[in-house]
Amino acid sequence: MNKIWDLIKNEKVEWKTIGEVFEIRNGYTPYKNNPDYWKDGVYNWFRLDDLKEQGSVLKKSKQKITKEAVKGSGLFKKNSFLLSTTATIGQFGLLYEDSLANQQFTNLSVKKEYENTISVEFLLHYFYEISEWCINNSNLSTFKKVNINELKELKIPIPSIDTQNKIVKILDKFNIYVKELERELERRNKQYKYYKDKLLAFDNTDSPERETLRVANK
Fold this sequence. Notes:
alpha+beta; Adenine-n6-DNA-methyltransferase TaqI, Chain A, domain 2; 2 domains; five-stranded mixed β-sheet; three-stranded mixed β-sheet; 10 strands
């Protein structure tokens, strides 16, 4: 993380509000009792379950909708973001193709005038910060939600494209390292469980696992 600080500490970073950078739209659910909206659907329609299963890049939804279900404003654009702003706050993902989502999500699409000054990959990493802001600033009523007008006023940094790309490269490598650690931890946990089960099987006191443990402790 010190490398990132070294990249930006001497650079003039422009700050813009989310409302300035993004077109913002709400998700919706087409009328469930109308089969014309759902039968043989061709467009992704994302729900929270899809995000939980797929992670931060959203390719295919479990449920799909038809062309007739799409409102006049059209589909959410490829490379735009879904952000959950009601109930379970802060989940987010990048759309791999033009899609829609239910009303739990707000869609944020980079405005045309910013497409060449801010990279989608940089934004995908920065959405972790936006997500944290949403979690910390959602209301405390029975039905939690984010005030979209306040979200629009949240400022985000826009360093040069070159710096954005360098930051993305660093964070991508860091993510790979974290995933490797998670896989190693999973292997170690499985190994621990295996030996724990064997070592605590007191009716099998002469098991090879116990002998291995005795040798290791000599």
